Amino acid sequence: MDGTEKLGEEDYAFFDGFKIVVFGWDRFGWDEEVYYGNTPKEVVRCMSERSWIPEENGKPKEYMTGFQSRYFGERMPLFHDEESFLQLLIKDDRMKIYKWEWEPNYS
């Protein structure tokens, strides 16, 4: 059991409206946070809007920088945009992908 069994059918129906849905994760399993959007920028904005730190709340760039310093302790950016930030968190097992249907638009 990872905790996601607490979600109901209505939750999963809500997720169908987005291209990206990721679950916050910690060493105990799902931390009851779900972040979603149609682009990585929207997902990180969703994350930043839940920040308890006023300087980061609703400010994705400041949120990503603050998150990195709190959890990774690095002064140099480990990411270059919202997508690489999310991929860093996924690779580090701080998030699990439920849905990732977004593709970058290289035009």
Task: Provide a concise account of the structure shown.
With 107 residues, this protein is α+β, with helices and mostly antiparallel strands. The protein has one domain. It has helices at residues 9-15, 40-48, 60-71, 82-91, and strands spanning 20-26, 29-37, 95-100.
- What is the number of E strands? 3
Oligomer category = single chain
Structural class: alpha+beta
Taken together, the total number of domains comes to 1
Q: Order of helices and strands, N to C?
A: HEEHHHE
The total of helices stands at 4
Mean pLDDT across every amino acid position: 88
N-to-C span = 43 Å
Strand portion, in percent?
Answer: 15-25%
Q: Report low-confidence residues grouped into runs of 5 or more.
A: none
Helical fraction equals 25-40%
**Within the largest sheet, what's the order of strands?**
2-1-3
| C-alpha Rg (nearest Å) | 14 Å
Biggest beta sheet summary: 3 strands, antiparallel
Shape: globular
